[in-house]
Model the fold of this input.
Amino acid sequence: MPLLLTLTAAAYIALPLMDRLTLRWFARDLNMRGSLVANALTESIDDALQQGRDSRIQALLNRAVQDERLVAIGLCSEEGQLMQHTTGFPKTLECKEAQQIAEARDPLLHVSGGAIQVGLYPVDSQGRHIGNLILLHDLSFIDRRSQDTRQYLIILIGVIGLAMALITMIVAQVSWHGWVKGVRGILRGEGLLRPMAYEAPPELAPLAADLRSRLRDLEDQYRRALGSEEEWNPDRLRSLLQSQLRGDQVIVVSNREPYIHKNTPNGVVVEQPASGLVTAVEPVMRACSGTWIAHGSGDADRSVVDSHDRVSVPPGHAEYLLRRIWITPEEEKGYYYGFANEGLWPLCHVAHVRPVFRESDWKRYREINQRFADAVVAEARGEDPIVLVQDYHFALLPAMVRAQLPRATIITFWHIPWPNPESFSICPWRQELLQGMLGSNILGFHTRFHCKNFIETVDRNLEARIEHEHSTISYQADETLIESYPISIAWPSAEETRSWLTVAECRERVFSRLGLTPKMKLAIGVDRFDYTKGILERLHAVEHLLDRHPDLVGSFCFVQIAAPTRSSLDEYRVFQDRIHQVTQRINDRFGREGYQPVHLLAKHHDHHALNELYRAADVCVVTSLHDGMNLVCKEFVAARDDEQGVLVLSRFAGAARELGEALIVNPYHVEETADALYRGINMPPAEQRERMANLRMTVREFNVFRWAGRMLAHAARLRLRRRVEARVQLHQAD
Ligand code: ADQ
Done:
């Protein structure tokens, strides 16, 4: 349509120009013809005049006027008298007037039938001027021609317009058909879950990626809605290890050890660290009786190990082996505090803290990765153990182990988020890190979103082949499966829950310990004292809540449990000081005799104490600015067998993808978080029950055994495929 309009507008501008141009051409043509006629007549007229034969002149003029374009001819004397003329000569036209018209720029005379061109040609005889010939040419044919041209042009524009519309329609039809076919293919799952039967247009690629991740989320949601087919528990994990993995050796590598031996005035005590990773991996190790390799960080650790630096754990149960690796304080400074926690941790968390990369830290990181890799090789009983590598402290280790044990099955799980490729690109050693990680057979993240970010990062930084359909990356000779395995907790057994105090008892104990009155509403936060956990934002929300609802002053209390962590780093010290200051400010503003609105307990609590607190609370607040998963929210849900209590959960925690029945908030939005807190403390018990029952169903089914079980089942499949391939090759060789 716009094209048609443009063509029409152009025609309307061009037509008058064309008319003027053709008029000029014809006028010039007529002038020449006039000159020829006049020249031909001059001599004869001269003769006739000399002989006084007027009739001869008349005959001459009549013959000449037979030319189709000539309307009339008149002969004027030198004095301007019309001496002779043919019949068509206008009666009103006098010689003088004709002369004036002929000398004008447009020598035209407009009469009723159209325009007439007036031409004046001198008649000379023997060098003497004896008169003028007036030639009147008919120009009406020009108008006719111009009208014809106009018509043809309009028809031509119409035809071009129609042709173009037709072509556009055909092209649109074809591409729409292709597009619809592509989208249908994607919706059927082609190219997402299996290869596409039809080549989808390239512009669908981003849509396909989004749909792919959405479909998988829906698949998970659907499975959750259906309820569990078969629950994952330690027995099922054990039977998977025994049947599908045929009792193959499992080796775990992590920085943090599951048990720390410490010297105290009362002798050596054993502590379990506050760590999501330990919470998740410990039940798996208990189920498979493998070897866990970790940094021996306790001051009494050396005193309890054997000559191979091994100790059986858990203390008193001896279910698996803990192999300790020794790291000097200098090495720990570079590898752990430096590269891992000042570099990779802020790099992977979008929490607006600048990563720091130092060459010396990187060197230490490489050395320690190599030391752990050598320990894996030393602990391996055969050539193909299953190695479970934990977290960002060991990005280089998978390729290092692969170099020494090419047949090992290496599963790396990244417990923290994976950032987008732009954020990751600031790391000076990004290629080395990616190459190291791609030494794994399976690389796991908590969410599909992190997987997608990782695949895009590899795509930007390495020459690797990416198969989106199967979520695999082939780099050099190795293929790595990139999969999401949402981590979780071990669902408490019936035996364990029977040992718990009732909710009322827990509430009573916690309230009396903190000096709270029984009717008070209690909100809690439980975290490592880390800037990614959104503790500051949470305090701001509490302050805003008390500002907005003065009736809550005296009847609402917030307890923050914060396990000290990485306190030797400046960033952490400054952050922790700030939290203390803000807590103080809120307490100064709203506290009074016998009432302290915020309790900040910056110390490690054992599992039992945390469980008591979870059961005592009305609301649990998790406001991470960015979190791989977050296990605290799952622990809270698991603790609430009374189906009461409200979970306020950050949308930036991986857990938000599973726990939709929580009150989901943007922790950066103070008012929104405060509103959710208010809603939480005032939520009717029936609504709490409905939400909590659903949350419990999810956490119960999507427990840590499922997390480990799915990873190990995928590993078993890979190993089986490799064995079959090896057998086929052997057959062929025979
Ligand atoms: P973390 O950052 O440590 O874990 P999270 O998943 O919340 O975060 O786990 C913390 C664990 O420490 C929980 O088991 C909690 O009970 C315990 N804890 C917290 N405060 C404590 C305290 N004061 N005393 C004792 N124990 C305390 C990392 C990633 C997460 C991911 C986990 C598991 O950052 O995103 O969920 O690994 O993959």
Observations:
- Residues 274-277, 279-280, 415-416, 487, 526-528, 561, 563, 604-605, 610, 627-632, 635 surround adenosine-5'-diphosphate-glucose (CB under 6 Å).
- The two ends are 73 Å apart (CA to CA).
- The chain has 23 helices and 23 strands.
- The chain has a mean pLDDT of 89.
